[in-house]
Design goal:
Number of strands: 8
Largest sheet: 3 strands, mixed
Structural class: mainly alpha
Strand content: 5-15%
């Protein structure tokens, strides 16, 4: 009977979740990875969300679980994400204006909790669509000894949730990503200020920002109010998961150059997969849009150009040893952008150290971005590009690959 099948599904969910949770917590304690205080508890997050990703297909087969979202449900979810985005802008405006942020932070948390209740069917639908696009782009993987059978590896797995904050540290006399620490996703502005103050008291540059996603398994992904941006972010995080099984991903933390190559490749692959998804799975309808109470941005300001020029100026000043002038230039630029409706976190050495890892963005002056863009143009397909770059072990490998492909 259906009711018996549903009961069996519930029991299976509870038992499997309990076993997985116990195993992950034991692993976390053994590795010293379980967070305490202000740190993000990644093992606990993985335990709870991976259990659901694994169990839902089985539960659905037994008559329970949840089914992929309809267009209407996706639109409702994106509308809720728009409300969250409006709250995030309100909070960013409060932070940039040096006013009390607690009210804006609490309202954002309330809207996020409301949105989380809608997330599971949307996750299920978008996971299936992304897996389909990966197959179409031939980024799937043949099974060992059964090469005719190709699977998406790793299987697409993500969960919408509020990503953690990241404490970023850089020296003041140069822009270099010296250290990062994952922090709780519900970190209050006052605690974030205290943590950055502690690092700055030691003579370093520090910044706390919320990241857009985390390539754990499942990936931690922030809700987005744009269908296009949501697909882009999901594909970006899956690319990180894929690369982890290859030399490029394994060496993510080996050097600044390898971090930059990884992030830039994930950006490039994410954009192409997202474009394929938009074409193959168009969304019918328009989600509701919510407006922030903060002043609207000035469309005459080219933020990318402003930030890129600032980065060039700051690099030059730091090379000269003129740290005070460099820091004043960054503070003045942030003030200018705030006055024109662009509410960025504090712009400092840590800001550029973090965002400069994405070599195809305005915050970067790395030559690796143009090299990767040139390399992509030399390959006829996304899959052929990825298969080549996934084996890169250092920046010199990338140069040799570019020369060889230019042949």
């Amino acid at each position: 009977m259906p009711s018996q099948r549903i009961r069996r599904s519930v029991v299976l969910v509870l038992v499997t979740t309990g076993i997985w949770l116990a195993a992950m917590l034991a692993l976390g304690r053994t590795a010293g990875a379980v967070a305490s205080g202000d740190r993000y508890n990644l093992p606990l997050w993985i335990a709870g969300h991976l259990s659901r990703v694994w169990i839902n297909p089985v539960a659905r087969h037994l008559g329970g679980g949840f089914v992929p979202a309809t267009d209407s449900q996706v639109l409702d979810f994106l509308g809720g994400s728009s409300a969250v985005a409006a709250s995030e802008r309100d909070l960013a405006f409060a932070e940039a204006s040096d006013v009390d942020t607690e009210v804006a932070a609490k309202e954002m948390q309330r809207r996020i909790q409301t949105l989380n209740a809608q997330a599971w069917p949307v996750e299920d639908r978008l996971s299936g669509e992304l897996a389909s696009a990966i197959h179409v782009e031939a980024l799937d993987t043949p099974l060992p000894a059964f090469t005719r059978i190709r699977v998406v590896w790793p299987p697409v797995a993500f969960a919408y949730d509020l990503p953690p904050y990241l404490l970023i540290q850089s020296p003041r006399d140069r822009i270099e990503l010296e250290d990062t620490t994952l922090l709780r996703s519900d970190l209050s502005p006052s605690v974030a200020s205290r943590l950055t103050g502690d690092v700055e008291a030691s003579g370093a540059s520090a910044l706390v920002v919320r990241i857009g996603g985390l390539a754990a398994y499942p990936a931690v992904v922030e809700e987005d109010d744009s269908y296009s941006d949501a697909l882009d972010l999901l594909a970006h995080e899956w690319t990180h998961q894929y690369l982890l099984f290859h030399p490029l991903g394994i060496r993510y933390f080996e050097s600044r150059a390898m971090t930059t190559i990884n992030e830039t490749v994930a950006n490039m692959v994410g954009r192409e997969l997202a474009a394929d998804l938009r074409e193959r799975f168009p969304l019918t309808g328009t989600p509701e849009r919510f407006r922030s109470s903060a002043p609207a941005p000035d469309p005459t300001i080219n933020v990318d150009r402003v930030l890129h020029q600032l980065r060039l100026d700051v690099d030059a000043l730091l090379i000269q040893g003129n740290i005070p002038t460099a820091e004043q230039r960054m503070a003045d630029t942030r003030r200018f952008l705030t006055e024109h409706g662009y509410y960025l976190p504090p712009i400092n050495q840590a800001y550029f150290a973090f965002y400069g890892a994405y070599a195809d963005t305005a915050a970067s002056t790395s030559p690796l971005g143009p090299r990767l863009a040139s390399l992509r143009r030399l390959y006829p397909s996304l899959a052929s590009f990825v298969r080549s770059v996934q084996d890169v072990r250092n920046a010199e490998d990338l140069t040799r690959l570019l020369i060889s492909a230019s042949g």
